[in-house]
Model the fold of this input.
Amino acid sequence: MSRLEEKTLKTEKIFDGRIIRLQVEEVELPNGQLSKREVVKHPGAVAILALTDEGKMVMVEQYRKALEKTIIEIPAGKLEGNEDPLQCAKRELEEETGYGCDEIEWLISFYTSPGFADEIVHLYMAKGLHVIENSANLDEDEFVNLKEVTVQEAVQLIGEQKIYDAKTAYAVQYMQLKEALQEK
Done:
């Protein structure tokens, strides 16, 4: 089958919230049949692999209601309006950790759950961390504990299912590959 696109015939908005929108789309499939797709619309997000001068990764421990558990993650947050992802990454790093950085670079962008959502995460690496006096605070409904972990400790946390999200696992894998290449 050469044509794989699905043509949207009708969109019904189901929910419009603070973070996501849910809609049901009636689509024409490549074979001409009709089907429905439930789609979550998301403004996009950033995640920051923040490295201390000692090479440790700065992470946040926080409770995630959707999982009903506390997990450890790299700092992250959603884009506000038409916010530039780089500016969002700097803002989220400051808000969640109290750190600014001398250097920040984009690593990669990826979709989190393309089967039903359009959320894209832009992953950045921040170096040259420094504490910002009177830094921006967490959102009023955010509570986190800061952690600094080595790559080996992060791998252990993945095994213990304390690191349990894709963006953080992706960042840890990036660091593992980086270390392996440096050893050669």
Remarks:
- Strands lie at 7-16, 21-28, 34-41, 45-51, 57-64, 69-73, 76-78, 99-111, 120-131, 145-149.
